[in-house]
Amino acid sequence: MSKVFVDVGISLDGFIAGPNGGAKNPLGDDGLKIHNWMFKQKAFLSHLKLEGGETNNIDNDTIEKTIDRIGANIMGKSMFIEGEANWPEDSPFHCPVYVLTHEKRESLVRPGGTTFHFTDENIYKILENAKKSAANKDVRISGGARTIQQYLNAGLVDEFIIHIAPIFMGAGVRLFEHLDKTKFSFAINNIINSSEVTHLFYNVKNK
Amino acid sequence: MSKVFVDVGISLDGFIAGPNGGAKNPLGDDGLKIHNWMFKQKAFLSHLKLEGGETNNIDNDTIEKTIDRIGANIMGKSMFIEGEANWPEDSPFHCPVYVLTHEKRESLVRPGGTTFHFTDENIYKILENAKKSAANKDVRISGGARTIQQYLNAGLVDEFIIHIAPIFMGAGVRLFEHLDKTKFSFAINNIINSSEVTHLFYNVKNK
Where does residue A122 rank: exposed (0-12), middle (13-18), buried (19+ CB within 10 A)? Predict the structure, then answer.
């Protein structure tokens, strides 16, 4: 049975992106810094078909394990718009990606196994389709913040992973807001720590 | 040489207190929940001269180590006002506490070794006095958020410890805002995890 999980990098003051994000400014002002720990790891770079990167460290292992479990992604329209303008042609998912949008658009097949499906069905139905696509793998709610919040508030997330970089953004897009805390609670599952980032793994109990 | 440190409990969405805090509502609506993990530990309860509590666990050890290192506290006026109305007569510091306030008031000696000094000197001078009082122990910037932010922005904090409870407040007093991130950076020092709370220890590099 596919699990549904969130896996997202965050600054210590709670932002997943800087202000003024968009196609020409992916992740907003200074937002890329939230992921500096990740950009240097081979597991991330090779997923983008880029050379180099560090191996044999806990951050690389953590990325590798996450990538291995993803069978399908769900993302919001804004995240897709930012990504479409910036991802390489061989975009970094290598599996189906369901994009929440009211725009009618044919599915977009990119080299390397990524197919973007554009859908305005309700979030339950979209998840059902994503689970079918994922087969025995898991579904990742990729972002952005609003999409993650929607799925969390609907009681549809099983696991929530955050990677806290010890940096401060001061402004931008907050991850943990607009939450209906009567609908779910978090329980600590595991913590992995390196000198650059702290990985926190929570199980979500839905009510 | 005394270290200056912050040690504060925080919700996963970044709050150190709920909304509507004050003398009659210490830590604000639902704010006490941020510290549930702490209230059950012997190291905390015995500091309040209360019986019972759990021992032989990593959370209790963490509290004990923190308490042992404190030679003096610095706190803001609002924190003091909330506390004065709610701390037991034998208030839970057992060392000098410097309260930032413009109110003129004689030092207040409480049983059990806590003396509150009320001061409107600048924060550098107050810290100097606190360090003298602390002798070979450390100075804790106790709170609230504004006092912590002031000391952090002044480049006066050496270590920053947060205890993240896996709960959501939704509203209240944020710890990490109004920060001048050009003045300091955080480096991960250590992480301690239990099933109820995650203790993150950062070293502060002041610029």
Answer: exposed
A201 close to B (CB below 8 A): no
Q: Backbone phi, then psi, for A73, in 5-degree steps?
A: -120, 150
Beta carbons of B53 and B64 less than 8 angstroms apart: no
DSSP state of B25: B
What pTM, to 2 d.p., does this model score?
Answer: 0.96
Location of structure tokens 């504060």:
B8
Q: Using a CB–CB cutoff of 8 Å, tell me whether A186 touches chain B.
A: yes
Nearest-CA distance A17 → chain B (Å): 15
Amino acid (one-letter) located at B163: H
Burial class from Cβ neighbours inside 10 Å (0-12, 13-18, 19+) for residue A134 reads buried
For residue A98, give the nearest of A73, A122, A77 by alpha carbon. Answer: A73
Q: Do A186 and B14 touch (CB under 8 A)?
A: no
Across the interface, of A188, A194, A196, the residue whose CB is closest to B195 is A188
* Sequential pLDDT tens for chain B (207 residues): 899 999 999 999 999 999 999 999 999 999 999 999 999 999 999 888 889 999 999 999 999 999 999 999 999 999 999 999 998 888 889 999 999 999 999 999 998 899 999 999 999 999 999 999 999 999 999 999 999 999 999 999 999 999 999 999 999 999 999 999 999 999 999 999 999 999 999 999 999
Q: Do B176 and A200 touch (CB under 8 A)?
A: no
ipTM of the complex: 0.95
Contact A162, A16 (CB under 8 A): no
Q: Are B169 and B204 in contact (CB under 8 A)?
A: no
Point out the residue among A185, A191, A194 whose CB comes nearest to the CB of B198: A191
The answer, for A57 touching chain B at a CB cutoff of 8 Å, is: no
Q: How many residues does chain A have?
A: 207
Token digits of residue B71: 């030679």
Residues from chain B that touch A37, judged by Cβ atoms under 8 A, are: none
Q: Kindly state the greatest CA–CA separation across chain A.
A: 46
